[in-house]
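Hey Z.,

So I finally got round to the FE2/S2 (inorganic) cluster thing we talked about over coffee. Here's the setup:
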Amino acid sequence: MTTPPHRYQVVVLPGGQSFEAQAEQSLLKSLDEAGIYWPRSCRNGTCRTCLGKLLEGQVRYEVDWPGLSAEEKQAGCILPCVARPLSNLVLLDPLAD
Ligand code: FES
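And the result:
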């Protein structure tokens, strides 16, 4: 018997869309699978096109040095193309402003 992949609930504000994100893939891929558009370009954590805001929850990064300063991380900025969920999350849509 195989164990199903661990999933977390993600809510995107201000629209309130919600979806399940797999712990073992990038948030960007889970956003795509949920049909939620999110800006992107490089998909490797360097260009910052996908920069968004994490309002609640925790993520880990697939790369050692994602293109975020310590201050930005502290302020809740995330790069979904290289971030994987560690908990349920609430994200702020970068196109909402
Ligand atoms: S798409 Fe380039 S940093 Fe995420």
